[in-house]
Amino acid sequence: MRRPSRRKNQDSPVYEARTRDVLVRVIVSYLPQESLPEEGKWVWAYMVEIENHGTETVSLVTRHWRITDALNRTEAVDGPGVVGEQPILKAREAFRYTSGTSLPTPSGTMSGTYSMVLDSGEQFEAQIPEFSLHLPGAARKAH
């Protein structure tokens, strides 16, 4: 996993992981307008971009997320595809989507894998980089 980098003129770090020819990039934003700290609810949006840098078509079949709060409580989320789709990426194609999560603590982390299938039928797990869910101005590190 590469360390997070900064986008020019932006406060949100960019997290990336590459598995074989699949690059997964994540950018996170805290949503104060959706959060209710007085009720123990902090909300983040995250944009994921999946790029196929290979020569063979690849399909995203399932997802597996690990969401960990500041008290080290972990929730697993598994399911088919992402945002109701199972994208098929030809060589040099990318798929982008936005989703979100909430935590009962003001910080945490997310990471996981996408189950991918090549045209040849070979299956592999593409890593989703671990990324920090944090309040603006807070320390940006995985727990």
Describe the model:
This protein is mainly beta and 143 residues long. It has a single domain, classed as ApaG domain (Immunoglobulin-like, Sandwich), CATH 2.60.40.1470. Helices cover 0% and strands 59% of the residues. The chain is built from no helices and ten strands. The strands form two sheets. The protein has a five-stranded antiparallel sheet with strand order 1-2-3-4-8, with no helix packed on it. Strands 5, 6, 7, 9 and 10 form a five-stranded antiparallel sheet that branches. A hairpin with a 4-residue loop joins strand 9 (108-118) and strand 10 (123-133). Mean pLDDT is 91; it is low at 1-9.
Number of helical stretches of at least 4 residues: 0
Major β-sheet, in short?
5 strands, antiparallel
Q: What name goes with the CATH superfamily?
A: ApaG domain
Stretches where pLDDT is under 50 for at least 5 consecutive residues are: 1-9
Order of adjacent strands in the largest pleated sheet: 1-2-3-4-8
CATH architecture: Sandwich
CATH topology: Immunoglobulin-like
Helicity, as a percent range: under 10%
Mean pLDDT across every amino acid position: 91
- Based on helices, strands and strand pairing, what is the structural class? mainly beta
E-strand count: 10
Fraction in beta strands: over 45%
Secondary-structure element pattern, one letter each: EEEEEEEEEE
**Count of domain modules:** 1
Our Rg estimate from Cα atoms comes to 16 Å
Q: At the first level of CATH, what is the class?
A: Mainly Beta
Report the principal-axis shape: elongated
Span between N and C termini?
A: 16 Å
